[in-house]
Amino acid sequence: MASAFEYAPAPESRSVVDIAPSYGLFIDGEFTEAADGKVFKTVSPSTEEVLSEVAQAGAADVDRAVKAARKAFEKWSALPGSERAKYLFRIARIIQERSRELAVLETLDNGKPIRETRDADLPLVAAHFFYYAGWADKLDHAGYGANPRPLGVAGQVIPWNFPLLMLAWKIAPALATGNTVVLKPAETTPLSALFFADICRQAGLPKGVVNILPGYGDAGAALVAHEDVNKVAFTGSTAVGKAIARQVAGTDKRVTLELGGKGANIVFDDAPIDQAVEGIVTGIFFNQGQVCCAGSRLLVQESVQDELLDSLKRRLSTLRLGDPLDKNTDIGAINSAEQLARITALAETGEAEGAERWSAPCDLPSSGYWFAPTLFTNVTQAHTIARDEIFGPVLSVLSFRTPDEAVAKANNSQYGLSAGIWTEKGSRILAVANKLRAGVVWANTFNKFDPTSPFGGYKESGFGREGGRHGLEAYLDVR
Amino acid sequence: MPTTAPAFSDATASDSALRRFLHGLPGVDAVGLEARAASLGTRSIKTTAKAYAIDLAISMIDLTTLEGADTPGKVRALAAKAVHPDPTDRTTPRTAAVCVYPDMAATAVAALAGSGVKVASVATAFPAGRAALDVKLADVRDAVAAGADEIDMVIDRGAFLSGRYLKVYEEILAVKAECARADGPDARLKVIFETGELSTYDNIRRASWLGMLAGADFIKTSTGKVATNATPANTLLMLEAVRDFRAQTGVQIGVKPAGGIRTSKDAVKFLVLVNETAGEDWLDNHWFRFGASSLLNDLLMQRQKLSTGRYSGPDYVTVD
Fold it and tell me: pLDDT confidence of B6, banded at 50, 70, 90?
């Protein structure tokens, strides 16, 4: 959109990060080749440029890593909590010191805007390590009795949408409670986890306490299936989550799953409209909508629907899509060709089923994976796009007439991860929040995260909680 | 007598109707508003965009002196600065206006004759506004008679805070009537809310609509005489108000943040707010102003930095 006030390009410098041409697996404190020598390439989703070649873990590597973690567990779990805390505080501080480098790296590998990695991802990553560092010597007071014990070796599989933040959510509580970990990052975003491995070395973390295995689904499955893993933690799709639940059934492995969502963002007619519009934008277009707790269903009261949609469309027209390294970019690239194909197919289904499509007017770059911010009106509960998780910048707009109808529609989902309530009336916030079956309910805000707050789902959005005091339970033998 | 925009004539029919209308406006969530203002404050404005923004900001300044110590000499010096902000670079744009007390308006008019720089005069017992209506109107008449192009009035915050909205409305109407000239263009009316005294964002939104309904040509945050003056959040809120008012009535109204904006960086942030909230139609000094004095020199130093590649320092801009 041409304007008198054209913002000149303001790219963050790429030179602050030094990406090596190849990376190994991180096992027992060393970077090593995969046993079978396999490698895969990781690309920048905004340009399709190959960033690096990364060793691809297989079953033999999983075994090696689990053995290293098992060996390290004895000493690590015997350390006083105050000693484990020192390592975690040190890691947190190094993350802060290297945050610009890590933000640029994450933006390159994931495709999300630097504004988000700089202002959201990295501060939250550091905060998570600081928070759980604080718990490490206070576990006696966490509400699980005296001296709660760790579980052992945690096998952790994380997604590509917040690569470093999901790593922090997994590793920080595991280490604070005295477990050792083997973590598999997603195949499209392995780099920040490998940089984290370097941070572990920089912090002097004992060998084998953290092991990082870049790889594909087969490596994740081997990790989950490994007989010497005591705890499985997974964040990702509901389909894989179900497979993991089947795999661990009948074993004594503990498991926490953080899966998909179809969050309802409910706007009442007495909402602060301008801030609600911002919250809707944050809810579904933050990280290109590739957020499990995204507010992907907008439920708007019919009496303000037209006014709200006009405001929303006007606002979406101001979103700046493009080079994720540009500090003024609001919307970056979709993480992979595969994800782009999925979003595209679901949007086409929306049209085919009769919903009305509107996309923000913006030019998409010619290379890379891009999808314009899109909303669908005339959507009903029966539409696929109102039920299935799209995991992309696509908002389905539904309407309601009464608070009861809003609650019924919001809860009418296989998922139950997040919801938002927009109203200036405090009593309505409390009444509606009590009836929503969602793990996180935001009032007059959306997609706000804090390490002190537990996060997790109802129904097919998974079980177990991450974050806060509740997040300790998943890594303690307190069943 | 100015008339209310037809779409809202019912709203001003009585005190109770006006109260219902103003209290029926959507609420403002303070956390969300401030978060949005802060997020727009992270825009990175560089090179050509910065040059554009600095020149635009200079052209939008109401260069202000509102001191008990003001003299004709001081006003003439300020007028000269407004016409040639940077004596070493004649390509520097002129400021929009010089803003003075009514008794200095004639001096400013004479000093700025033919320059294109407007004369704005505060009036209505600025800054407290605590005077009888006829005194306030006489103050306005003086300034208009002296040739002021623009009148910056203050609303009666006491009346507003005690819920007597119609009194505030009628006072603005009366001042607006005094801005009329039989023999030339009417003075444009800026209505100052003193947002720091209104205290809540809900009040600022209500005051904005009240002012616009009463025929304000500009809505203005503050006098610069209280602790809290223009902020990104209250200016963002007022930009939303003028945007919504035009969408509903077709009438465009200007916005003037005043007080507390001292650096180029701040000014550029406000222009980003304008650009991404009200839109580019407001990126013009007919529709957006900065009430400021020290801001100009900082803009000039930044402008010199862009053209020469180095900072010159405060001795290379004029102190007036």
Answer: low
Give the model's confidence band at B2: pLDDT under 50 very low, under 70 low, under 90 confident, else very high. Answer: very low
**ipTM reported for the complex, 2 dp:** 0.95
Parallel, antiparallel, or unpaired: how do β-strands A50-55 and A39-43 relate?
Answer: antiparallel
CA distance B205 to B211: 10
Please choose, from the candidates B97, B99, B89, the residue with its C-alpha nearest in 3D space to the C-alpha of residue B60.
B97
What fold, for B6-316?
Answer: TIM Barrel (3.20.20)
More confident residue, B200 or B320: B200
A272 touches chain B (CB under 8 A): yes
Q: What is the pLDDT of residues B76-117, one digit of tens each?
A: 999 999 999 999 999 999 999 999 999 999 999 999 999 999
**What CATH fold (topology level) applies to the domain A14-259+461-473?**
Aldehyde Dehydrogenase; Chain A, domain 1 (3.40.605)
Contact B283/A at CB under 8 A: yes
Nearest of B235, B229, B139, B221 to residue B187 by alpha carbon: B139
Asked if A374 and A358 touch (Cβ cutoff 8 Å), the reply is: yes
Query: Which of A173, A113, A98 lies closest to A452, judged by CA?
Result: A173
- Which among B32, B46, B240 has CB closest to A10? B46
Q: What's the mean per-residue pLDDT of chain A?
A: 97
Whether residues A8 and B283 touch (CB distance < 8 A) is answered with no
- Residues of chain A found within 8 Å of residue B36, distances taken between Cβ atoms: 274-275, 278
Residue B157 · residue B119 · CB < 8 Å: no
Q: Per-residue confidence at A3, pLDDT binned at 50, 70, 90?
A: confident
Q: Is A274 on the interface with B (CB under 8 A)?
A: yes
Give the one of B32, B56, B280 whose C-beta lies nearest to A445's C-beta: B32
> Which tokens go with A101?
């480098």
- Strand pairing report for A180-184 and A153-157: parallel
Check: CB of residue A212 under 8 Å from CB of residue A26.
yes
Q: Is the pLDDT of residue A405 over 60?
A: yes
Is A275 in CB contact (< 8 Å) with chain B? yes
Amino acid at A412: N
Residue of chain B minimizing CA distance to A317? B276
Domain ranges of chain A: 14-259+461-473, 264-451
* Chain A residues with beta carbon closer than 8 angstroms to that of B53: 5
Instruction: State the CB neighbour count (10 A cutoff) for residue B83.
Output: 16
- Residue-range domain boundaries for chain B: 6-316
* Nearest CA-CA distance, residue A317 and chain B, Å: 10
Q: How far apart are CA A51 and CA A23, in angstroms?
A: 11
State the average pLDDT over residues A388-415. 98
Banded model confidence at residue A122, pLDDT cuts 50, 70, 90: very high
pLDDT at A264 over 70: yes
Query: Are B43 and A7 inside 8 Å of each other by CB?
Result: yes
The phi-psi region of residue A250 (left if phi > 0; otherwise alpha if psi is between -120 and 50; otherwise beta) is: left
Peptide bond into A454 cis (omega under 30): no
- How far is residue B191 from each of residues B133, B195, B234, measured CA to CA in Å? 15, 11, 15
In this predicted structure, the answer to whether residue B156 has a pLDDT above a threshold of 60 is yes
Give B48's contacts in chain A (Cβ within 8 Å). 6, 8
Mutant choice from A5, A267, A269, A331 vs B, greatest count of B C-beta within 10 A: A5
Q: Is B13 on the interface with A (CB under 8 A)?
A: no
Q: The domain A264-451: what is its CATH number?
A: 3.40.309.10
Q: Can you list the alpha helix ranges (DSSP code H) found in A353-452?
A: 384-387, 403-411, 426-435
pLDDT value, residue A2:
56
Q: How far apart are CA A369 and CA A329, in angstroms?
A: 15
- Judge: A278–B43 Cβ closer than 8 Å, yes or no: no
CA A181 to chain centre: 19
